[in-house]
Design brief:
The chain has 194 residues and is mostly beta strands. 14% of the residues lie in helices and 37% in strands. It has one domain (32-192). The chain has helices spanning 3-12, 87-98, 117-121, and strands at residues 20-31, 38-41, 68-80, 100-106, 111-116, 148-158, 163-169, 181-192. The model has no long low-confidence stretch (mean pLDDT 89).
Length: 194
């Protein structure tokens, strides 16, 4: 960078005229409910329906705000239990993860992507184990559990283009997963006009 370019950049300060390009994540969460099979995420914006900033950061229902373009490059899943689980609850959790799908749809287009939660988490094997004798610690296959699913092809969410993320439980959630929270995060590059 030349001295003149550096001086011009310093002269502009924090707020330039070219806009902002940011690493960004838009997120929303589902509170697991007994027998609720389908949840549409990113449809209730921050401040509506009791949604707080720890639950979502999308400010408009089902669309990226005016003046923004968002290139989704990864999907992140975060899962938090609502209560301590007993041994049987672990198997119920594993069933929920393997029998739940996530789809992303834009406006009037076909689905832009569809995955199982198990795949998105990187949990290739989920095996509940109860030792047959006290103190037995039998090693089982452990997956590379990561919770970040990089996309080979980005999904472009343009300003004011309707989109939704649909989570479908193909087996109804049971009592031990009720009140658990699953957060879906769309991560990528946000271009914002300032």
């Amino acid at each position: 960078m030349s001295r003149k370019d550096a001086l011009d950049r310093v002269g502009v300060g924090t707020y330039g005229t070219e806009g902002d390009v940011l690493d960004w994540t838009y997120y929303d969460e589902e509170v697991i409910a007994v027998a609720t099979l389908t949840t549409r995420l990113f449809t209730t914006p921050l401040g509506s329906g009791g949604k707080t900033l720890d639950q979502t950061n999308l400010t408009q229902a089902g669309q990226i705000p005016q003046g923004q373009l968002f290139d989704v490059r990864a999907i992140k899943i975060m899962y938090t239990s609502g209560a301590v689980k007993a041994t049987a609850g672990v198997q119920e959790l594993y069933t929920l993860l393997t029998r739940t799908t996530l789809s992303i749809k834009l406006g009037n287009k076909e689905t832009m992507g569809q995955w199982t939660i198990q795949e998105l988490l990187g949990a290739n094997t989920l095996i509940a184990l109860t030792p047959t004798a006290a103190g037995d610690n039998i090693t089982i296959i452990q997956p590379k559990y990561h919770g970040v699913f990089p996309l080979n092809q980005k999904i472009v969410l343009a300003a004011l283009t309707p989109f939704e993320v649909t989570v479908v439980h193909h087996v109804a959630p049971g009592a031990t997963t009720a009140t658990d929270r699953m957060k879906v995060c769309l991560s990528g590059i946000l271009t914002r006009v300032t």
